[in-house]
Automatic annotation (TrEMBL):
Hydrolase recorded as keyword: yes
Any one GO molecular function term: beta-glucosidase activity
Name used for this protein in its record: Glycoside hydrolase family 3 N-terminal domain-containing protein
Keywords tagged on the record: Glycosidase, Hydrolase
Length: 631
């Protein structure tokens, strides 16, 4: 059979396999289901083309890489036992590292990475993420998000690199890290995944205009003319496709009142026919159900609209039998043409052949150590925080150190003393006694944000592995410096302890998607009280851990220094590296920092532009290995 011969051209293999497939098998390829309803028997019986994990969907709490590999392989055995043996592909959200998986390296969210404006760093992060995903047996990721967030009230703004499309385009270099660099002679628009087991198929999202919705409301309507859509929200897709992109996920939002999942002009007309994207288009989670209001009110119409719009694979993720039944009925009654089904399946098979999954369908255990080990993860993390030592595996050391570098470069210094000759940072490492305060100082969950271990993120230090900012400070200061931690001290405690200075770490609690939509953008309580109690009494630097700019102007006068840390991820040591001068501050805002929410939406170039800190702002400091002295 030609389709099983890797020496044949991909086009020949697709053609040979397509002519052997029944309608039922083709519709199965168009279906992506959630792991909780998947079994080897279900995958076999329904010819399922893809399985996925929703946010926080694990085979077991704190599951090891081996457990993930075994689960994925069990589903794959179902695929391989079908008549044609078409491999399924497992997909997962890996939006800042392999974030669903315990012990993975958690990189800063995109809102921080955009600050770096460093495509080389981004490529390295992509490669590290791909390796840690492949360590769990998974070959497909729903990343990167290339939304251009124009309003920070949007609950997904931290998934966006910038309000500026040029920075977003730069950051699409992460695709080369995830998939491998596309060969110079490759045809434009054709998917590419490097040979071997160290890369993954990527998926840019969410097509298109998801970051421009009215008032930043998630899944809302983006009101903009065609020129604005193409010049602001579309450029990232052009550059991604040129880089050999495998798949594109459609947005749950609308453009000028038309649901994107039903927008044939933009999916088929523009993306496939005009831009000549040759990979496959996938829906978002339960997205075709949401074509109607209320959700799932007319599923027959939703399936018809989504398929005819040009979507190829459907993240159903639970009602796969209903989807198959409805789609089969539509095809047999000529509501949906067989040529449309064939287009979808050809695209899916093209990506699968490109991934090499027909030749190597089963994941092995050769990469599991790239995720670290359950037994020594705490020891390893502690050692890395203090500097690499011999027992730390090179790959793990590299990934954690890479994340730490990304944290350093993503920090933005917004205030540093009253003037250039009266600065606070870098802080002295040697002091009699210092105070560390704030809800976010000793909380990895808060530090990592949404899409970490679970969909909405976590609180505390148990469900992920890393270094808190408090631990990082203790690692960094002189051995004689007493570090006192009090999450929300009262003014009397602060005044009576004769602290040399204070570091206050506050921000937002974790959230994802619509749960993060906010019309007030305030620091989570008791953050404002902590700032007032501490900074009103002693010299302080405030570190804001948030997924976007937040209301800070009312407290700014009390602070001696202010740092935007965004959502730095698991490697809090990167924050201490810069606070104490081992490295200098270099980050420049990739988002406008507003004065009040009444100004929103406000982006650089607007006629009414009057920010607290403008796009591109960021103070710099010079490295000093000993910190500094205030003597």
């Amino acid at each position: 059979m030609k389709y099983k011969d890797p020496k044949r051209p991909v086009g020949v293999r697709i053609k040979d396999l397509m002519k052997r497939m029944t309608l039922e098998e083709k519709i199965g390829q168009m279906s992506q289901i959630e792991r909780t309803v998947a079994t080897a028997d279900v995958v076999k019986k329904h010819f399922i083309g893809s399985v996925t994990s929703g946010g926080g969907s694990w085979p077991s709490p704190k599951a090891s890489a081996e457990t993930w590999v075994n689960m994925v392989n069990d589903f794959q055995k179902g695929s391989l036992s079908t008549r044609l043996g078409i491999s399924m592909i497992y997909g997962i959200d890996a939006v800042h590292g392999n974030n669903n998986v315990y012990n993975a390296t958690i990189f800063p969210h995109n809102v921080g990475l955009g600050v770096t404006r460093d495509p080389v760093l981004i490529r390295k992060i992509g490669a590290a993420t791909a390796l840690e995903v492949r360590a769990t047996g998974i070959p497909y990721v729903f990343a990167p998000c290339i939304a251009v967030c124009r309003d920070p009230r949007w609950g997904r703004c931290y998934e966006s690199y910038s309000e500026d499309q040029k920075i977003v385009q730069q950051m699409t270099d992460i695709i080369a890290g995830l998939q491998g660099k596309v060969p110079a002679n490759s045809r434009k628009g054709v998917p590419f995944v490097a040979a071997g087991n160290k890369n993954v198929a990527a998926c840019v999202k969410h097509y298109v205009g998801d970051g421009g919705t009215t008032k930043g409301i998630n899944e809302n309507n983006t009101v903009i003319d065609a020129h604005g859509l193409l010049s602001i929200h579309m450029p990232g897709y052009y550059t991604s496709i040129i880089k050999g992109l495998s798949t594109i996920m459609v947005s749950l939002s609308s453009w000028n009142g038309v649901k994107m999942h039903a927008n044939k002009n933009l999916i088929t007309g523009f993306l496939k026919n005009f831009v000549h994207f040759r990979g496959f288009v996938i829906s978002d989670w339960l997205a075709i159900d949401k074509i109607t209001t209320p959700e799932h009110a007319n599923y027959s119409y939703s399936v018809q609209a989504g398929v005819n719009a040009g979507i190829d694979m459907f993240m159903i993720p639970f009602n796969y039998t209903e989807f198959a039944d409805v789609l089969t009925h539509h095809v047999k009654n000529n509501v949906i043409s067989r040529s449309r089904i064939d287009d979808a399946v050809k695209r899916i098979l093209r990506v699968k052949f490109t991934m090499g999954i027909f030749e190597n369908p089963m994941a092995d255990l050769s990469l599991v150590d790239h995720l670290g080990s359950q037994e020594n993860c705490e020891e390893i993390t502690s050692a890395i925080a203090n500097r690499p030592v011999d027992f730390v595996p090179l790959f793990l050391q590299e990934h954690r150190e890479l994340a730490r570098e990304a944290v350093r470069k993503s920090l933005v210094l917004l205030k540093n003393g009253e003037s250039a000759d009266k600065t606070l940072l870098p802080l002295p490492k040697k002091a009699q006694k210092i105070l560390v305060a704030g809800s976010h100082a000793n909380n990895l969950g808060y530090q990592c944000g949404g899409w970490t271990s679970t969909w909405q993120g976590i609180t505390g230090n148990d469900l992920t592995v890393g270094t808190t900012i408090l631990k990082a400070i203790r690692n960094t200061v002189d051995a004689t410096t007493q570090v006192v931690f009090s999450e929300n001290p009262d003014p009397e405690f602060v005044k009576s302890n004769e602290f040399s200075y204070a570091i206050v770490v506050v921000g937002e609690h974790p959230y994802a998607e619509s749960f993060g939509d906010s019309m007030n953008l305030t620091i989570s309580m008791p953050g404002p009280n902590t700032i007032n109690n501490v900074c009103g009494a002693i010299k302080c630097v405030v570190v804001v851990v948030s997924g976007r700019p937040v209301v800070i102007q009312p407290y700014l006068a009390k602070m001696n220094a202010l740092v935007a840390a965004w959502l730095p991820g698991s490697e809090g040591q990167g924050v201490a590296d810069v606070l104490f001068g081992d490295y200098g501050f270099t980050g420049k805002l990739a988002r406008t920092w507003f004065k009040t929410v009444d100004q929103l939406p406000m982006t650089v170039g607007d006629r009414h532009y009057d920010p607290l800190f403008p796009f591109g702002f960021g103070l710099v400091t010079v490295p000093s290995t000993q910190g500094r002295s205030w003597a």
